[in-house]
Amino acid sequence: PRQLLPNLTFLDLYPPTADAAREVLSSLSAATPHLDPKYFYDEQGSALFDAITRTPEYYPTRTETRLLREHARTMARTLDTELTIVEPGAGGCEKARILLDQWQPRGYMPLEISRECLLDATRQLAPQYPQVQFQAVCADYSQALTVPTGHQELPRLVFFPGSTIGNFEPVARRTFLADLRQLAGDDGFLLIGADLHKSPERLHQAYNDSAGHTAAFNLNILAHLNRRLDCGFDLDAFEHQAFYNEDQQRVEMHLQCHRDQHVRIAGESLTLSAGTRVHTENSYKFSVEDFSRELVTAGFQPLSCWLDDEALFSVHLARA
Ligand code: AVJ
Q1: Quick check: CB of 207 below 6 Å from ligand 1?
Q2: Is the CB of 206 under 6 A from ligand 1?
Q3: Which residue puts its alpha carbon closest to atom 3 of ligand 1?
Q4: Using N-to-C axis directions, what is the helix angle for 213-229 and 43-53, rounded to 10°?
Q5: Alpha-carbon radius of gyration of the chain
Q6: Which residue has the least CA distance to atom 2 on ligand 1?
Q7: Which of 39, 82, 171, 274 counts the most CB atoms within 10 A of its CB?
Q8: Quick one: which atom of ligand 1 is closest to the CA of 60?
Q9: Count of other CB atoms within 10 angstroms of residue 134
Q10: The Histidine-specific methyltransferase SAM-dependent domain covers which part of the protein (predicted)?
């Protein structure tokens, strides 16, 4: 790791471009062409996601933020120990700020795939919390959920807000939650956000905001691949689609292709014909009971769960 500030180290495990190219080629060539949602998040994508979180229609971020603010002290009393916070997919670390303010943890380790975003955020944060040791790790946490370990190890609290867990399909979710349990260690904790079932209309609006930020965010996945892998997608040939899939209890996002696209990825050419739909994201919705059961299955003991008045969103605290 590089020492960037007295209390900030930076470890770069950004995945090699060649690996990304092979992965993208194979997922776009599959029977159901798809892309991993992690490709949404380059510098531009993180900025677009930020814009989404400020739209009136997208309730999750502001609801969860309010829950964290309101209950952080109660959480700290329940935890009753010194901690290091580990946050896979930390983005701009906005939510961690709430915990840093109210908990005074000894360490904070954000893992984030967007290097610019991670560096900007931690360079800002570290001087503001001189008593906290910051270990920034640029990594694709979906590849390997391992983190550097130090000597005097404190119990870890794994922080996984935002209902990012909703991106995983049920089987992958079970594995991932078990990985989070490993990451937490035997004396650790998990603080995780899970978006709740609600009316399809409300969900539809949240993923089809009138300002068009969600559409821009969805299309940016191709812009990102153009910038990073020089694929040559024509963004004008694609259209944003988002809808609630009642059977699967998830919001799906797709990019509908209206014109034949000849692109080049990992040295191979690939044609996406007009009418092809590229599946870019699932966002599963949960009930408190089902989600708590999934935590138990992964080896956690649920401690508390907080909901807003409208029961839009849930925040779960569990121990290993
Ligand atoms: C960051 C994955 C939780 O699923 O709601 C927002 C991403 N996609 N609008 C979500 C997203 C479209 C978001 N997560």
Answers
A1: yes
A2: no
A3: 164
A4: 170
A5: 20
A6: 164
A7: 39
A8: 5
A9: 23
A10: 21-319
Strands 84-88 and 156-160: parallel
Angle of CA points 5, 116, 100, to nearest 5°: 55
The Å distance, Cα 40 to ligand 1 centre, comes to 10
| Ranges of the chain whose pLDDT falls below 50 | none
- If you measure from the C-alpha of residue 314 to the centroid of ligand 1, how many angstroms do you get, rounded to a whole number? 15
Q: Which residues contact 257 (CB under 8 A, 6 or more apart)?
A: 237, 238, 272, 273, 274, 275, 276, 277, 278
- Interface predicted TM-score (ipTM) of this complex, two decimals: 0.99
CA of 128 to the centre of ligand 1 (A): 29
Residues found in the chain: 320
The whole-angstrom separation of Cα 217 and Cα 152 is 41
The two beta strands, 268-272 and 261-265, are antiparallel
Is residue 230 within 8 Å of residue 199, measured between CB atoms? no
User: Quick one: which atom of ligand 1 is closest to the CA of 89?
Assistant: 1
For residue 146, the model assigns a pLDDT of: 76
CA distances from 61 to 14, 94, 232 (A): 26, 10, 33
Residue 93, Cβ density class (10 Å: 0-12 exposed, 13-18 middle, ≥19 buried): buried
* pLDDT tens-digit readout, 2-52: 999 999 999 999 888 889 999 999 999 999 999 999 999 999 999 999 999
Whole-number Cα distances in Å, 213 to 10, 59, 244, 276:
31, 14, 18, 23
What's the 56 CA to ligand 1 centre distance in angstroms?
Answer: 15
How many of the other CB atoms lie within 10 Å of CB of 151? 4
Compute the C-alpha angle 274/221/13, nearest 5°.
Answer: 140
Beta strands in the chain (DSSP E): 2-5, 8-12, 84-88, 107-112, 133-138, 156-160, 189-195, 238-245, 250-257, 261-265, 268-272, 277-284, 301-307, 313-319
**Pairing outcome for strands 2-5 and 250-257:** unpaired
State in Å: Cα 149 to ligand 1 middle. Answer: 30
